[in-house]
Structure to design on (202 residues):
């Protein structure tokens, strides 16, 4: 019997708010991030360019402060409970930075893929690797050749993950998912309860 691996975006899919704007609001950098978010959504700059600029803006914020902000971010509780109960077949695939989200991921208890940084003395030093989400899907296909991979996400940067996955679900729990993403999706879901019902059938 073929089994399903479930791969979740983090921001806006598992969290009730996007994490980078949340961090920016907490440290008084709202305007800078509003501009970057607008340019990224409009496609004026790529996700990679946007992440590099966000890194430059936030690199001097102490790492432990960012970790605390992320750990207090509001999550979709029923989805998180499902992941914890099915941690061996659930994965988080996020462009966020490994050191920022490591405590949150430990609490989830599942494997994850992320962008990578070097940090020293509680500060970010360098942005070493920006995750392309299709890379994570291809690693899972290699490691679990007898499994189908189902991707869940909401933004344009999830499109490579949707292209590489066997099936995909566009999520509209936090905001309207990208039209491009919807065009690539097998399902579009706007309510947490509906998503949980789907997850329990997979």
């Amino acid at each position: 019997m073929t089994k399903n691996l479930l791969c979740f975006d983090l921001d806006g899919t598992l969290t009730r708010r996007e994490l980078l704007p949340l961090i920016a609001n907490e440290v008084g950098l709202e305007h800078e991030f509003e501009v970057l978010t607008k340019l990224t959504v409009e496609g004026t700059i790529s996700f990679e360019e946007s992440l590099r600029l966000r890194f430059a803006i936030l690199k001097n914020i102490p790492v432990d402060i960012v970790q605390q902000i992320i750990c207090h971010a509001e999550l979709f509780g029923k989805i998180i409970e499902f992941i914890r109960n099915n941690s061996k077949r659930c994965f988080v695939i996020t462009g966020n930075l490994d050191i920022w989200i490591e405590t949150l991921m430990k609490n989830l208890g599942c494997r994850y893929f992320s962008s990578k940084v070097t940090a020293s003395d509680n500060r970010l030093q360098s942005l070493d690797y920006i995750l392309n989400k299709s890379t994570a899907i291809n690693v899972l296909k290699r490691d679990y050749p007898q499994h189908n991979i189902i991707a869940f996400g909401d933004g344009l940067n999830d499109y490579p993950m949707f292209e590489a996955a066997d099936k995909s679900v566009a999520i509209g729990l936090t905001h309207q998912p990208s039209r491009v993403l919807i065009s690539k999706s097998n399902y579009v879901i706007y309510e947490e309860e509906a998503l949980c019902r789907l997850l329990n059938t997979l």
DSSP finds ten helices and seven strands in the chain. The mean pLDDT is 91. The CA atoms of residues 56 and 95 lie 15 Å apart.
